[in-house]
Amino acid sequence: MDGKGMIRLPDKVRRILQVLRENGFEAYAVGGCVRDSILGREPSDWDITTAAAPQQVKALFGHTVDTGIAHGTVTVMIGKEGFEVTTYRVDGSYSDGRHPDSVTFTPDLKEDLCRRDFTINAMAYSEEDGLVDLFGGMEDLSRRVVRCVGSASERFHEDALRMLRAVRFAAQLGFSLDEEAAAAIRAQAGDLRKVSAERIRVELEKLVTSPDPGMLKTAWETGITAVVLPWFDRMMDQVQNGSHHIYSVGEHTLETMRNIRPDRLLRFTMLFHDMGKPDCAVRTPDGIWHFRGHAAKSAVIAREITDMLRFDRATADKCVRLVAVHSLYPEATPAGVRRGAAQTGPDLFGLFLEVKRADIMGQNPAVQEKKLAWLDKVEALWQEIRERGDCLKVSELAISGSDLIRDGVKPGPGMGRLLEALLEEVLEDPSLNQADLLLERSRQLRQSGGL
Ligand code: ATP
Ligand code: MG
Q1: Cα of 132 from ligand 2 centre, angstroms
Q2: Distance (Å, whole) CA 220 – CA 164
Q3: Cα of 118 to ligand 1 centre, how many Å?
Q4: Sign of CA dihedral 163, 165, 166, 167
Q5: Which of 152, 294, 317, 403 satisfies CB 3.0 to 4.6 Å to 148 for a cystine?
Q6: Which of 99, 126, 143 is nearest to 30 (CA)?
Q7: 320-336 CB burial, b ≥16 within 10 A, e <16
Q8: In ligand 1, which atom is closest to the CA atom of 31?
Q9: Which atom of ligand 1 is closest in space to residue 91's alpha carbon?
Q10: First-residue to last-residue Cα distance in the chain
Q11: Which of 36, 48, 121 to mutate to test the pocket of ligand 1 (most atoms within 8 A of CB)?
């Protein structure tokens, strides 16, 4: 083998490989870390593959964790850092299109590399042997293609998730799909129905937060989104020729995703923000499409998808809230911005502005200039509001519910409405946020009735 010295292994990885080798077991760095090192990218983690059985690995290292012992994976802890060490294995047949019926360990590195999904993920490296590249992974790295190890159709038949993984690696690395892989996906994308929501979410998230979220279009063209995200296909079909738009709803969505930083919450918010449009589409006789009420509808869909894909609660809730408010246009005045922040919730207003900018960047360039000028102004005002610490929510009012109770107000919904009314006046004029003034004003409001 050649390629010795082509990868600089971190000291801790070198130490683990050395311990295994000194005890008579072959051991290599493998998969993503080899691929990323060759591409000059920082590997996210270093995986090790070895001929040693899990019990043997455990016996050689002081501190280990049984991460996936049934699949041969033991995490070796070096200080606070963990490294997954997996025994060479062959996956048995896949009768369900999701996971192997059985896993067998093998003494042969070649068999282990053979079970891996793509040629660029199926290379191993050690300082002694250099690069082990049995399926043309190096060549595919230089051609910048994602190609399956062996027959694409068979590999996707074994595990349907690989179809989505192919697209996400292409998006992360800036690669394209090999022809055979793309054709196999077109024919077999329906099998993704068998894959668990959690596994799909993991890959979708990596695709959406990649440097090229526009690759979602490839997932659409090859039939993947029709199965895992059918709402996206409806957006691709929805035209919207109005003065604000020159793209279909789907193309606009992709453009907004490209125009926001690669943060999970923000990218998914852009992905969902107009999903309600096809349901709200109305065409007036002049040929213009209108989508009244689409933000609320999109929020309902966002909730449905985040539930389906088992998003964590906190992310899902913020995402749904941002989608629901995305079409607000707060007035570019101090009071207008304060009211806007109260509507989105002050915690989300900064993100809302990022969503706004991305949304505008995905619209007809002819209308962008005016909208961006508005946005710049709102951003500057928001900055000032935060520096001053203006009151933006009921809990920041100079009086609280207990002050009102002491003043004779009965607890309950009426008191809540009273506080809201006071907040509205304070948003308009922050100088009113003083306990004595607010108490006085609350008495007036109560006397004038209604509250
Ligand atoms: P990342 O940087 O995203 O973690 P990675 O290549 O390490 O990229 P993982 O999903 O962590 O990707 O998988 C680690 C390795 O395990 C892959 O490089 C591949 O060799 C193998 N692998 C993972 N999932 C599959 C699968 N579904 N089918 C076949 N091989 C797989
Ligand atoms: Mg990995």
Answers
A1: 18
A2: 11
A3: 9
A4: positive
A5: 152
A6: 126
A7: bbbbbbbbeebebebeb
A8: 18
A9: 29
A10: 83
A11: 121
For residue 87, give both structure tokens: 């025994």
User: Atom 8 of ligand 1 has which residue's CA nearest to it?
Assistant: 32
Instruction: Please check whether residue 63 is in contact with residue 74, taking contact to mean a CB–CB distance below 8 angstroms.
Output: no
Ligand 1 nearest-atom number relative to CA 35: 6
What are 359's two structure tokens?
A: 């949304």
Q: What is the pLDDT along the chain (451 residues), one digit of tens a residue?
A: 578 889 999 999 999 999 999 999 999 999 999 999 999 999 999 999 999 999 999 999 999 999 999 899 999 999 999 999 999 999 877 777 777 778 899 999 999 999 999 999 999 999 999 999 999 999 999 999 999 999 999 999 999 999 999 999 999 999 999 999 999 999 999 999 999 999 999 999 999 999 999 999 999 999 999 999 999 999 999 998 777 777 899 999 999 999 999 999 999 999 999 999 999 999 999 888 899 999 999 999 999 999 999 999 999 999 999 999 999 999 999 999 999 999 999 999 999 999 999 999 999 888 899 999 999 999 999 999 999 999 999 999 999 999 999 999 999 999 999 999 999 999 999 999 999 999 999 999 999 875 6
Residue 364: what residue type? Answer: N
Pocket of ligand 1 from Cβ distances under 6 Å: 31-32, 44, 47, 116-117, 121-122, 159, 161-162
In the reported structure, the alpha carbon of residue 108 is separated from the centroid of ligand 2 by a whole-number distance in angstroms of 22
Task: Tell me 148's DSSP state.
Answer: B
CA–CA gap between residue 198 and residue 68 (Å, rounded): 17
Alpha carbons 438 and 420: distance in angstroms, whole number: 12
- What are the start-end ranges of the E strands in 151-299? 176-177, 282-283, 289-290
Strand, helix or coil for residue 438: helix
CA dist., res. 337 & res. 147, Å (int): 51
